[in-house]
Amino acid sequence: MAQLRQDYKRFEKLSTEIIVVGPENGESFQKFWKKEDLPFIGLPDPEHRILKLYGQEANLFKLGRLPAQMLVDKSGMLRFVHYGHSMTDIPSNKEIMNLIKAIDADPG
After folding, report:
1. Which residues, 6 or more positions from 2, have their beta carbon under 8 angstroms from its beta carbon?
2. Cα separation of 32 and 19, whole Å?
3. Could you give the CA distance from residue 53 to residue 51 in angstroms, rounded to a whole number?
4. Checking DSSP bridges between strand 41-44 and strand 19-22, what pairing results, if any?
5. How confident is the model at residue 60, as a pLDDT?
6. What is the mean pLDDT of residues 67-87?
7. Confidence at 104, pLDDT banded by 50, 70, 90
8. How distant is the alpha carbon of residue 22 from its chain centre?
9. What domains can you pick out in the chain, each with its CATH number?
10. Residue 84, SS3?
């Protein structure tokens, strides 16, 4: 999440909203969000409903939920998905921003 915080203003300039879904309950999630002063939306998912809906992998031997990044366009269509194979397998912000620009430039 530090990576997302670092470029949050640049994502805002691209009219992009960041939503982070986590496995904690609402109270724990809210405490973490306040402590870290994160500028984007945090959504607790303790029952793993969103995880299951989007096919995100959970693996206790790899520290729980593996990372997954998704881009949903303004019409609600899922346009990009990256399922990480480890906690460090995360696309760079630059890569994500380039995808956002390509999606915005796509007339269809």
Report:
1. none
2. 15
3. 6
4. parallel
5. 55
6. 85
7. confident
8. 9
9. 2-102 (3.40.30.10)
10. coil
